[in-house]
Amino acid sequence: MRHFGHVAPEVRQRLFHHEPCTFTADSPARLLSAALGATLYSPATRPRLADDIVKQSAQGVVSMVLCLEDSIGDEDVPAGEENLVRQFADLAGRFAGEGDGAVELPLLFIRVRTPEQIPDLVGRLGPAARLLSGFVIPKFTGERGIPFLEALAVAEAACGRRLFAMPVLESPELLYRESRVETLEGIFRAVDKYRDRVLALRLGVTDFCSSYGLRRAPDMTAYDVQIVASVIADVVNMLGRADGTGFTVTGPVWEYFRVPERMFKPMLRHSPFLEGQAVELRERLIEHAMDGLLREITLDHANGLLGKTCIHPSHVPAVHALSVVSHEEYSDAADILRPERGGGGVLRSQYTNKMNEVKPHRAWAERTMLRAEVFGVAHEDVSFVDLLAAGIPG
C-alpha cells in the first residue's frame, strides 16, 4: 500500500517531487508508525464491515480500527466479536494470497475492552489473523496497560505473527494535575518495557473533555481548550521526545462533519483557494467544518503529533494532504543532513528566507525525512490545496 495510491499515476507524477513509498504490514515499525496517517475508526458491529474496509482502502485509507469499545453498547460486544470473526473470514477469502486483487487491505487493528479479548479473538480468527496488525488498548495507564501488553505477547506467540499495540491515553489520572506526572511515568515504564510492540500512542481527547463536562465547538481546536492542550503538551514532553526514548503520538479525533450555523469567522484564508474550482472546494470545506480540522492538523504537527484518529471518511484526505512534506521543508531537511554538515554551523536556506542551524534542527530534519518517505514530497509549485483536491474520492 502507499499514500495517494488511489490517485492516478500521472496525477501523482504531477503532484510529487518524490512520491510516497510503498509499504506493507510487515514493514519496519518505525516506518509504519509514521505511515498510519488518518486512522479511521469503525464500529465492529457493522454488517458489511468487509465491504466497508475494501471501499475505504480504495479511497486512500491505510489504517483502520474496528472498535469493540466505546462505539458500541455493552450488550453488543458478543455480537461485535462474532461479526469480526465473520468479516475477517470474508476478507481472508477475498485476499487469499499476497498481492491479490487491485486493492491492498489497510493496516487493521481491533480496539478491545479487556486483556482476555486479545488471545481469544486471535484464536477465533484462525488463519484470518494474518490480516490483523494489532490491537488498540483503551484507557491505558501503567497499571491497567500491562495485562493488555502481556496478553498481546501471548497472542503473538500463538499465531506466529507480529502484532502491535496502540495504547490510548485518555484516563482521568492523566488529566488531573495531581496525578499526571506519576501516571505518565507509569505509562512510560510500561510502553518502554514492550517498546518493540508499541506502534504509536493515541490521544483520547473526548474522554479528557468528558471529565470536566466539556465539548469543543467546531470553531475551536483541541488546543483552544486549555486543560486539553496542557495534557497534550505533557504527553509529548514525556513520551514523544526525539532522543530515541520517544514514541509516535497521534492527533486527537475531530468530531464534526457538517456545521448548520457558525458563530465565528471561518479559519480558512481565501488566498490558497483563489483559482478555478478551488473556490468551490473552500466553500465545501467550510460547510462541513473542515476548516477547523485543517487548523487542528496544522497545530498537531506544530506540537509534535503525527497522524490522527478519524471517525468519518471525509476527514482522511485532509490529514494526508497536510502530512505531505513541502518542497521547502524537504530542501531545508536535506541541507541540514548533508554529511559535510556533521560539525554543525548555520546556513541560509535554499529558499533564502530562513537560517538553518544544523545541530538544533537535526532531529526535526530526520523526522521530516521519515514523513517525506511515507507521504512524499510535493513539487515546488504544488500546494496543500492541490493535494487535498487530488485526494478527495471522485
TrEMBL record:
Which InterPro entries does the UniProt entry name for this protein?
A: C-C_Bond_Lyase-like, Pyrv/PenolPyrv_kinase-like_dom, Pyrv_kinase-like_dom_sf
Q: Which Pfam families match?
A: C-C_Bond_Lyase
Record-level GO BP terms: oxaloacetate metabolic process
Q: Any idea which GO molecular function terms this record carries? A: lyase activity; magnesium ion binding
Q: What does the UniProt keyword field contain? A: Lyase, Magnesium, Metal-binding
Q: Does the keyword Lyase apply?
A: yes
- Please indicate which superkingdom the organism of origin belongs to: Bacteria
> What is its cofactor?
Mg(2+)
Q: What is this protein called?
A: ATP/GTP-binding protein
Organism of this sequence: Streptomyces galbus
